[in-house]
Write a structure and sequence with these properties.
Elements: H1 3-6, H2 27-37, H3 47-69, H4 73-100, E1 104-106, H5 109-116, H6 125-137, H7 152-156, H8 158-161, H9 171-181, H10 191-197, H11 203-243, H12 247-251, H13 275-281, H14 285-290, H15 306-317, E2 320-323, H16 327-349
Antiparallel strand pairs: 1-2
Helix pairs in contact: 3-11, 4-6, 4-11, 4-15
Length: about 350
């Protein structure tokens, strides 16, 4: 069985039926799976998805403190910019283009560390990276961990129900997980430790990283704007942490066929280019599915790509030593032929 077919822990309801068709679980099945996988008392190997949602729960009080005590025009503006633009763009820069696809390379671990910690730590790299490789391999097919055709809740709770790695990987398969994660700089378990904890990332390392990251950013925000700014931006992080879980459902058109000729060229999946995620986070998703290893996905002039601007800036500064840019390939293979065909048709009509 191919590695990506079994690297993720399958849900109790399965990926597909005996005929190979996507299983669309009921809401009750999804919620039962969700709370079962958060149960660290029953199985300590559930610690990583539990840890991921624990961070979200710890951020929520900041959001209510922001609303009740620090609501003003400037804190709302700061929260909007931080959640919608800064955290969204950082997710694209770090988790998406670097950790998963290796679209660019850092000069050294110092610049990697700086980029990793540009924002409040929320999403564990392991949960994102391994499952996203599967997503590209099986996009909108059974086994895709956030298959939009199975509904909103299927995608929204995917980080718990579908994205953790399997708990029974062989030595060779776990070694492949290590290879996919090695460049991220995240401290990994040995195979023996993996058998105990059910994850690549070490829980002690994850806990220390979380505490240090949050402590640094709360202090930094406090020095810049007191508790008002600190609570506002930590509250904004809560808003982003919940909102980002809706992206793949929306980015794959809610499981429907909404691709537009001349806009969405990747026809092997249901991904679409959307203006808002593109403008605020560089997530031109259909372009990305065409060229997943490209450090730029905003190919057309109007497709603003803040993540690409950061990567290019770091390259100019010498912090990034190489990157892959598929803009020219996109134009030559897809956009120019489309325009030529369109002009031919238009000419005949005239």
């Amino acid at each position: 069985m191919p590695f990506l077919d079994h690297v993720l822990q399958p849900p109790a309801y399965g990926w597909n039926d005996k005929k190979g068709k996507l299983i669309k679980p009921t809401i009750n099945q999804i919620l039962t799976e969700f709370f079962s996988r958060l149960n660290v008392i029953r199985d300590r190997r559930n610690w990583l998805p539990f840890f991921s949602w624990l961070k979200v729960l710890c951020l929520i009080p900041f959001f209510f403190i922001f609303l009740s005590s620090y609501l003003s025009w400037w804190t709302v503006l700061a929260a909007f910019i931080y959640s919608m633009i800064i955290m969204g763009t950082h997710g694209t820069i770090w988790h998406h283009r670097y950790c998963t696809h290796g679209a660019y390379k850092f000069r050294n671990s110092f610049w990697r560390f700086i980029t990793q910690n540009l924002t409040i730590n929320v999403i564990p790299e392991e949960i994102y990276v391994i499952s996203h490789h599967v997503h590209h391999s099986k996009s909108d097919q059974p086994g895709d961990p956030y298959n939009a055709q199975a509904g909103f809740l299927y995608c929204f709770l995917a980080d718990v129900n579908h994205q953790p790695i399997a708990k029974d990987l062989s030595v060779s398969d776990y070694h492949r997980v290590q290879l996919l994660m090695k460049h991220t700089g995240v401290s990994g378990n040995t195979y023996g430790q993996y058998k105990v904890w059910g994850s690549y990332v070490n829980p002690v390392s994850a806990l220390i990283t979380w505490v240090l990251n949050w402590s640094f950013w709360y202090l930094a925000f406090y020095l810049m704007g007191g508790h008002a700014l600190a609570c506002s931006l930590f509250g904004a992080a809560a808003f982003w942490a919940i909102g980002v879980r809706t992206f793949n459902y929306e980015g794959h058109a809610k499981g429907e066929d909404k691709q537009r000729v001349g806009t969405d060229y990747s026809e092997n999946d249901k991904s679409i280019n959307q203006l808002w995620p593109g403008f605020v986070a560089g997530e031109w998703h259909n372009n990305h599915h065409l060229y997943p290893k490209s450090a730029r996905s905003g190919f057309k002039p109007h497709q603003i790509d803040l993540a690409w601007y950061y990567i290019k800036m770091m390259y100019k500064l010498g912090a990034v030593i190489s990157f892959k840019d598929d803009k020219q390939r996109f134009y030559e293979r897809y956009h120019k032929p489309y325009l030529e065909a369109k002009n031919r048709i238009h000419g005949k009509e005239i």
